[in-house]
Write a structure and sequence with these properties.
The chain is an alpha+beta fold and 140 residues long. The protein is built from 4 helices and 7 strands. It starts with 8 loop residues before the first helix and ends with a strand.
């Protein structure tokens, strides 16, 4: 997706939610074709989403086999404020480690602490960087 139109109310809201929301749902495709949603922590730079995974997980294997994925953010309690992105994901072996990305550390420091991991331990455990390039945005 080159850029979605942030001049619209929906585009501006989607961009802000992608920057601020702590949890997203990445849906990959299992080997049998079944959608496999996973909650993720992520960082949006305005063009791509960066997330980290433990190695050898179904999510990583699914992306390696079939890069088409979707990401959605939780709706509000009435089913509104929906943000859904579709596109392709890839493993990025050249990405910096999670603990060296200041914006990621700031966004998830308290989350890391809540699961008993320092930023350094988190980076060692969640060592696979995944980049998601959205092609389409939809929602309301």
């Amino acid at each position: 997706m080159q850029n979605f139109d942030r001049s619209t109310e929906f585009g501006a809201r989607a961009d802000q939610r992608l920057r601020d929301d702590l949890i997203g749902w990445l849906t990959t495709v299992g080997s049998d074709g079944t959608p496999q949603p996973s909650p993720i922590w992520f960082l949006w730079d305005g063009t791509e989403i960066l997330l980290f995974s433990e190695p050898n997980t179904p999510k990583v294997r699914n992306i390696q086999r079939q890069p088409k994925v979707s990401l959605h953010l939780n709706s509000d309690e009435h089913g509104g404020n929906v943000v859904i992105l579709t596109g392709e994901a890839r493993i990025d072996e050249a990405a910096p480690k999670a603990d060296t990305i200041e914006a990621y550390r700031q966004k998830y420091q308290s989350g890391m602490e809540s699961i008993g991991l320092s930023a350094e331990a988190f980076a060692k455990t969640y060592s696979v960087a995944i980049r998601f390039s959205p092609a389409k945005l939809r929602g309301h």
